[in-house]
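Figure 2 data, in text form.
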Amino acid sequence: MPSGEFDFIRWVRDRTAADPRVLVGPGDDCAVLTPTRRPTFVTTDVLTDGVDFRLAEVGGWAVGRKAMAANVSDIAAMAGSPTAAVVGVVLPNAGNSRQLAEGLYAGLREVADAFDFPIVGGDTNTWSDGLVVSVTLLGEATGRGPVTRGGAKPGDWVFVTGPCGGSILGRHLSPTPRVREALALHVTVELHAMIDVSDGLAADLSHILEESRCGAVVLADAVPVHPDAITLSQRTGKRPLEHALGDGEDFELVFTVSASDGERLLRERPVPGLAKIGECVESGLWLDEGGARRPLAPTGWVHPV
């Protein structure tokens, strides 16, 4: 950056408010946080230009917002609250790198402010390739503890917190992590297993089933399909349901509860948009369309490694 890394750090520090959870914030070798007695969550995501976004089309603010929101969604998936973030950025070695860095910071801060946690540090660098953003986020569990992927049981009901599909039309850049929804559900019922829909509804449900060593039947007519999936299907020729099951980056929550708790959720509706989409069984992942059951492929995004 023409103005230099340390000038940018000072710029960030000037915009970082004091927080009682932070003993030492940006500007030192490490951040220092006030200890907590509850279990601590740690999650990280790396986003790269050309894979997770196209910087030339969307700009730095949208990238920063998505990078932070994706991590907050991981905390939501375990029914926790975010507490502090650190951010690593590798900027393209171009003349507008300082402007890009400030735009990124604005997007990152918008999400952090919305969920009441500070950005406590990080690192910046430059190179001759595309933008890379890495966010590491800390969070804490509630008194009921974390919800993992591994607790689903045959007989559980499977729910999703909202409609899925077609996020590539724009929603993938501005998701609203379902932290408040997760906490409301955690208070109301005993959540057996939960995950956020980042790779795809079918793929992420399959992650729950793999960790829980059980199966599930998804009811085609019960899957909430986002209007974007219908719009996208007109371009791709795929069914809207296919987009809802496989597109990913909806950042809704998929979770399982007992049948009795499922009935309570449908009766009390602590979360708007809640939909029961199926039930857990002994093994396999199945799609039921009009009473005919067939295997459901766990389609979704997979990073090549």
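Caption note: The longest strand covers residues 80-92.
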